[in-house]
Design brief:
The protein has no helices and six strands. With 61 residues, the protein is an all-beta fold. A hairpin with a 5-residue loop joins strand 1 and strand 2. The mean pLDDT is 94.
Length: 61
């Protein structure tokens, strides 16, 4: 599961054990993650933040 926060922080979380992976640390003056989308295969995560930053995370198989 992916979680975006109001300060721009982005985490991946594993439900069974609560493990977390930091994808994007909250930048200085960062603003909310406003968009999260997985591709059809569930291997790529696209995110966008209110300040205009965006990224694509490609997960290994």
């Amino acid at each position: 599961m992916a979680q975006g926060y109001e300060d721009g922080l982005l985490l991946l979380c594993r439900i069974p054990d609560g493990a977390e992976i930091l994808v994007r640390a909250a930048p200085e003056g960062g603003r909310a993650i406003g968009a999260l989308a997985w591709d059809d295969t569930g291997r790529r995560l696209l995110f966008g933040a209110a300040e205009g930053a965006a990224g694509l995370l490609d997960m290994p198989a």
